[in-house]
Amino acid sequence: MTMRPTGNMPETAPTQSGDAVEIADGVHWIGALDSALRSFDMILRTANGTTYNAYAVRGAHGVAVIDTVKAEFSGDFFRRLESIADYDEIRFIVLNHLEPDHTGALPELMRRAPNARLIISKRAPAMLKALLKPPGDDNFDYDVADTGDEISLGDRTLGFLHTPFLHWPDTQCSYLVEEQILFSGDVFGCHYCDDRLFNDRVGDFRFSFDYYYAHIMRPFKPHVLDALKLIEPLPLKLIAPTHGPILRDRPRRYVARYRELSTSGDCFEPGAEHRSLIVFYLSAYGSTARMAEAVCAGAESVPGVRVSLYDLEGGEIDPFVDLIEAADALAFGSPTVNGDAVKPVWDLLSSLAVVSLRGKIGAAFGSFGWSGEAVPMIEDRMRGLKMRVPVPGLRVKLIPTDDELAQARDFGSRLALAMTGGGHSPDARGGDAARGERVIDFADLK
Ligand SMILES: Cc1cc2nc3c(=O)[nH]c(=O)nc-3n(C[C@H](O)[C@H](O)[C@H](O)COP(=O)(O)O)c2cc1C
Ligand SMILES: [Fe+2]
Ligand SMILES: [Fe+2]
Question: Does residue 362 form part of some domain?
Fold first, then answer.
C-alpha cells in the first residue's frame, strides 16, 4: 500500500480537522479523510483518495462505536469521538470488518474505553487474535454476533447480519433498528474522498462505486447475493459504509446496483445453455495459431459446447475478464519464447484475481523450438489459480504436421468432453462449480 503524506495536500476540507458529523439523531460520523491516497491495497487506484468511515451511536444507556480507522488517522478519529462522547460512556465497540484500514485505532480505543464490550462476527475470532497478537493466551474478551443477534443501548437496538466474504471471511453488517441505518462495512463503499460526505452533496462517484465493486466484491458474487437476501427486506433510511459517501439519498438504489452487478452475466447471450470454451493464443510465425484453430475445430465437434477463439495480440484485457468469468473452460496457446510463455498470456492470467476461477477447466498448448517451457508453465499457473487441468498440454515442435494438427483437434475434443462430463474427467462440472466460492487460504490464521 502506498500513501503520500497528507501534509503535501492543501488543507481545504473543513472536516479534515473538524468535529464529528451528525448523520442522524444521536448518530455521528467519526471517521477520517485520506485525500492524498492514490492507491489502495496495491490493486485499486484512488483518484481523489478515500475515507475511513467510523460511526458512534448514542443511546439512553451509552454509546456504541462502529469500526475505527487506519492507524495513521487515529488522531482524527479520537478527536471526533471525544467531541461527542466520553470514553467511559462507550458500552460497545462493533467491528464489522477487521482489515487494518478499520481496526488501526482499535488497540488504543480498547485501552481508552475499558467498559466497552467488543463485538465481532462469528467468523472473526481467529483473525482478531492474529491482528491483536495478545501476549499469552486470550487476555481480551469479545462477543461474537450472528444474523439475528442484537445489542441494546436502552432505547436503541443494533442488530447484526452475518455477511461473510464481503470481502473477507469475517465481514458482517450492523443495523440500527430504530433509525433504519445499515452500517455496511466495505459493502456499498467506494474509495472516494469528499468532505461533503453525503451522496447527495459529493461529486459524481458512480464510477468509483462500480470500480470498487469490480475489484473488491466481484470475486464473491455468490456471497453478495446471500448478503442481499438479508439486506433487501430491511427498511432503509441510510447506508453508512466504511469508505466513501454516506448513502442517505435513495439508499436502495445502491442495493439494487449491487444486485445488478452480481447477476449480470447470468443471462449471457444466445447459447447460454451451452458450455463455453474460450481459446486464447498468440503466435509470431503462425504455428500456434494453426494449432489453436485445430483445437477449436475439435472442441466444436462435441455437441453442447460453444467455442470462441481470440488472438491476444488483438484484444484489450478487461473485456476478456468478463468473458472468462462467464466461461466454463479456458485454453491458452503460447509459443515458447526465451524459456517462457509470452507476456500477454501472463498479463491476462494475472488479471483474473477479480473473478472466481475455481472449478473452471484450463488447458495449454503451443509450438516451440527446442525447450518448450510455455505449456507446462501455463498449466502450473492455472492449477495455482485452482483451475482443473484434466487434459495434458499439447506441444508441437516448430511447424505442425497434418498428423500434429489432428492431435490438436483430438486435444480440443477431449477438452470439450471433459467440459460436458463425457471425457475421462468424470467430475467435470464446468460453470456451476466455476460460480462457487473463491478459495482463500486463511489456514494460517487458525
Ligand atoms: C525470440 C525467440 C526466442 C525463442 N525462445 C525459445 C525457447 O526458449 N525455447 C523454445 O523451445 N523455443 C524458443 N523459440 C522458438 C519458438 O518457440 C518457435 O519458433 C515456435 O515455433 C514459434 O511458434 P509460433 O509460430 O506460434 O510463433 C524462440 C523463438 C524466438 C523468436
Ligand atoms: Fe476491506
Ligand atoms: Fe476497507
Answer: yes
User: How many angstroms separate the alpha carbon of residue 330 from the centre of ligand 1?
Assistant: 22
Shared domain check, 283 and 420: yes
- On whether both 289 and 202 belong to a single domain, the answer is no
Quick one: pLDDT band at residue 14, thresholds 50, 70, 90?
very low
* DSSP summary character for residue 198: B
Please provide residue 338's backbone torsions phi and psi, each rounded to the nearest 5 degrees: 50, 50
* Cβ 335 under 6 angstroms from ligand 1: yes
Ligand 1 atom closest to residue 397's alpha carbon, by position in its atom list = 21
Task: State whether the beta carbon of 334 lies less than 6 angstroms from ligand 1.
Answer: no
Structural Rg of the chain based on CA atoms: 26
Q: Is 285 in the pocket of ligand 1 (CB under 6 A)?
A: yes
Which among 263, 298, 316 is the end of a domain?
263
> Do the Cβ atoms of 355 and 327 come closer than 8 Å?
no
Pocket perturbation via mutation, ligand 1, pick of 290, 338, 371, 397 by most ligand atoms within 8 A of CB = 338
Task: Write out the residue range of the structural domain in which residue 416 sits.
Answer: 275-434
Q: Which atom of ligand 1 is nearest to the CA of 286?
A: 25
Answer yes or no: is the C-beta of 14 below 6 A from any ligand 1 atom.
no
**pLDDT tens across 47-95, in order?**
899 999 999 999 999 999 999 999 999 999 999 999 999 999 999 999 9
Is the shortest distance between the CB of 398 and ligand 1 below 6 Å?
yes
Q: Count of domains in the chain?
A: 2
Supply 30's cell numbers.
467519526
> Which ligand 1 atom sits nearest the alpha carbon of residue 399?
21
Our answer on whether the CB atom of 367 is closer than 6 Å to any ligand 1 atom is: yes
Closest CA to 24 of 151, 156, 113: 156
Whether 99 and 215 share a structural domain: yes
337 and 239 in a common domain: no
Q: What is the tens place of the pLDDT at every residue in 92-135?
A: 999 999 999 999 999 999 999 999 999 999 999 999 998 887 66
Q: Are residues 257 and 365 both part of a single domain?
A: no
297 shares a domain with 257: no
Select from 240, 263, 286 the last residue of a domain: 263
The CATH number for 340's domain is 3.40.50.360
For residue 370, what are the CA distances in angstroms to 286, 292, 343?
17, 20, 19
138 C-beta neighbours (distance < 10 Å), count: 10
Same domain, 137 and 167: yes
In 140-251, DSSP assigns E strands to 143-145, 150-152, 157-162, 172-176, 181-185, 238-241
